[in-house]
Structure to design on (478 residues):
């Protein structure tokens, strides 16, 4: 974790030891660049990098690489999310080169939600790679300047490589060990699934520290506001991998409907403050789908504003 | 079929059987080479498909990783993850794609902790599948071209030292 291999601002920031804030942007169902830029503008003020999802939930939107290209062109720091669901190894390796050439410096390597979860469940799944194989391939291309075939790459893609982890689901004991695998495969930074269960996350981080993994990668904890009690129920029953403890859902339930959004925001701020106290946590990753308007307030209340000046980093 | 389900929960027996079969093939390798890998592959096809099919629900990917994955076939994962599990496992340990089915990687991890010989191999990273091997005998593939199954520039990893 010494030299900055990618020239990425996010990497520079994390290396400087400052808390990083990344925020998720859902690319629009539109071919109009303004629809994307509008969503990005406000979030970029309160975060250090924007994640662009790659057909999240297996639903079509503007492509991650297209959206990243637009935003990178405007000078935004982006994290391109890349899944193995829709592309085989030939396409993935080509996209890694293309992304780097466009000026994208951070890539989050994911397996991807299954096609059956989206609105076109009849789709053919690809999964030629899994996330760990994608990470290892990207690392090989960056560090060895070759494709997997062994063919030379004349200018290797300079990328800061990310991976996702979910510490909250079974097999709980294996989760820190799988993180070790991702680091070995090439992960420089990690963005976690939504963290609502602090206790479980503390236990996870304890094992992570015992294995020394927090010194080998930067861990950004996934957080987000619950809009209402119904939204909390929806998230935990319908979205695979999201765990919300009963205590939190009850807290939302006891709050009058009109004040639930405020309460969800407060819970989110509390979670941010608690996770940032845990040793080995390098920052947070905001996922506020359709609640992007309150991200700024949350970051401010969590005392994370103003964000460091990007020009000053590196 | 209950007997096979029961066997799967005794991964130590299975890994011992696996070890034995592999040894037999290694010893028989010179003979198999003389007969011709292609020809033996044709003979092996049906017996291997039937036996591994009944025991592991084998999909004939041609690159058996059973001993790396708790004697649980990773190709039965709907996403075919060779380095699972994904982050979508439900709280009752079932699969995000098929809620009727226990996540095969939950089973793989639990079983690997009961395996004395190959238990630690679950910490090794598996290379991407070589699609040219699909539909052929995994044992013959291993003998004739095991070293060339991963992509040429794929560097095998050692598993984080602390874990092994």
């Amino acid at each position: 974790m010494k030299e900055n291999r990618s020239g990425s601002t996010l990497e520079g920031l994390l290396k400087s030891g400052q808390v990083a804030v990344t925020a998720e942007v859902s690319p629009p169902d539109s071919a109009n660049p303004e629809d994307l830029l509008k969503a990005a503008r406000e979030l970029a003020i309160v975060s250090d990098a924007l994640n662009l999802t790659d057909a999240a939930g297996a639903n079509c939107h503007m492509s991650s690489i297209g959206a990243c290209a637009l935003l990178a062109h405007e000078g935004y720091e982006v994290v391109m999310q890349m899944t193995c669901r829709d592309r085989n190894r030939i396409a993935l390796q080509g996209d890694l080169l293309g992304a780097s050439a466009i000026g994208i410096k951070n890539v989050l390597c994911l397996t991807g939600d299954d096609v059956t979860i989206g609105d076109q469940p009849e789709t053919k799944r690809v999964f030629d790679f899994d996330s760990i194989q994608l990470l290892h391939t990207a690392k090989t291309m960056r560090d060895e300047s070759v494709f997997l075939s062994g063919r030379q790459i004349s200018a290797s893609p300079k990328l800061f490589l990310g991976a996702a982890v979910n510490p909250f689901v079974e097999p709980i004991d294996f989760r820190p060990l799988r993180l070790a695998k991702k680091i070995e495969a090439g992960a420089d930074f990690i963005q976690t699934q939504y963290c609502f269960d602090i206790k479980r996350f503390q236990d996870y981080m304890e094992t992570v520290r015992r294995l020394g993994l927090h010194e080998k990668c930067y861990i950004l904890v996934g957080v987000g506001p619950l809009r209402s009690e119904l939204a909390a129920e929806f998230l935990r029953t319908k979205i695979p991998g999201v765990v919300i403890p009963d205590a939190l859902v009850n807290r939302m339930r006891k709050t009058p409907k009109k004040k639930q959004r405020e309460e969800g925001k407060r819970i989110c701020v509390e979670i941010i403050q608690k996770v940032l106290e845990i040793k080995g946590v390098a920052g947070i990753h905001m996922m506020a789908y359709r609640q992007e308007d309150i991200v700024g307030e949350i970051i401010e209340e969590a005392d994370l504003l103003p964000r460091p000046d990007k020009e000053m980093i590196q | 079929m209950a007997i096979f389900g029961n066997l799967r929960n005794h991964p130590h027996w299975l890994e011992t059987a696996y070890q034995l079969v592999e040894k037999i093939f290694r010893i028989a390798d010179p003979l198999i080479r003389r007969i011709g890998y292609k020809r033996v592959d044709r003979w092996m096809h049906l017996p291997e498909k039937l036996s591994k099919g009944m025991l592991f629900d084998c999909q004939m990917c041609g690159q058996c990783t059973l001993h790396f994955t708790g004697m649980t076939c990773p190709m039965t994962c709907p996403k075919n993850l060779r380095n699972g599990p994904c982050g979508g496992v439900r709280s009752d340990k079932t699969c995000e794609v098929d809620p009727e089915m226990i996540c095969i990687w939950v089973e793989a991890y639990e079983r690997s902790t009961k395996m004395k010989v190959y238990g630690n191999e679950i910490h090794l990273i598996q290379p991407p599948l070589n699609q040219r091997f699909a539909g052929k005998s995994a044992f013959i593939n291993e003998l004739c071209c095991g070293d060339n199954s991963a992509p040429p520039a794929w560097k095998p990893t050692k598993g984080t030292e602390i874990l092994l």
